[in-house]
Design goal:
single chain, 455 residues, mainly beta, 2 domains, eleven-stranded parallel sheet, 5 helices, globular
Amino acid sequence: MKSTDLGVGSFIISLALTLSLGLFVNLVKVRATSSTYTVCPAGPPTCNYRTIQAAVDAASEGDVIKIATGTYTDTLNPMVSITKSLTLRGGYAADFTDPPDFEAYPTVLDAQGVGSVIDVLGEITVTLEGLQITGGGDGGGLRIMNAMATLDHNKIFNNTRGLSLNNSQVTLSYNIIVSNTATSGGGVCVSEGSAIFSNNIIAYNTALAIWPSSSTYLRDKEERQPPLSILTTLGGGGLCLFYANIILTGNRIYSNTSYDKGGGLMIVGGATTLTNNFIHDNQAPIGDEAFLIGGEASLAHNTFASHTRGTGLFVQGDKTFGDPGIVTMTNSIFGNYGVGIYVDTIATVTVDSTLWGSGAWANTTDITNPTNWQGEAGYIYTGTLNLWDDPHFVSPETGNYHLRPDSLAIDAGINAGIYTDFDGEPRPYSAGFDIGADEYWANPPQKIYLPMVLR
């Protein structure tokens, strides 16, 4: 039911202003910013509204909308349109008792292929928590444009693209983004703006990667914009990142597919930081785990592993704009690739403290920069610390790429200024920093892990 959450201190301040200045409107403003609306499948009188859009329309800036468990559908396109600063939170039982339980009380928003599930538009600040977003047709699961947003503990699945983030500032934590399909960025596509991804699962997404005509492509490139023709063709099964500022920390990106470039990630320009990520078993014709063109990328303590013998990272400069593409990598593991890192025209890759797989995990070629037909090649600097050994993962057949106690990666790394690992455990545990996303602990602290996601 609609409630008003006033602290005693806020009430006294507002009352004092009302009495002394006659500003009754001030009390109204304080109350308006803390209003809560409820949504449930049954509608009134059990709750305030039956549809989420009705609650959004009734709410004011800063309000909270609590959504009870159930499956919500609508014929609207988008199903929910948000143009004001709000918090939408799922995972509630019928009595709306806090705290919500996202697992016990799933809140499903299903657009049934009619259009996008949720649009967040304009210079607003929105929080989405504990929602299951599915069935997005044209427009996908979630579109955020020119806004600030926080996405926490959501599941985004079976959409025509999971998320589109355009010229926005978005923080994504503990989300599961799976089984979405688009022409590019099957899971997520970011165009300009910035995003921070932490502790998310991005898996089983697909980029169909259909190229436009060359004339359209060249015209858009000259305009130096993030045009639709490029964004929908470059690839990136899991993520497509286009001229954006991106931080990815503690994510698992796996089993995504692109039919052109970047099975896991497609990165075009911008500035990208990857730390403590497990990136494994993605597939693409070029750059199974990641394809990077232009821009700058800094990678530290990441684990790359494959069962398909493709190319781990493919790095290429952007000759059109003279953007060479600069990648620095520290404390990385590369195992079981045909080519671990491929450095193409005018790009520069610097790697230090790397464990290259051997034995069953050997790469056919660890790193290469072949000369093209124009006599051009990329540049490679390998640093002084290169190791070759079986990484001794705990259980790679089930997707567990943590380190066993006999791994040569333990204590073998250098100080890259990273003091926690994928699980949030402190680094270093003993004599030195471990290579890869995991810091081996003999008796790890108690943790609650995100589950592996099955297709």
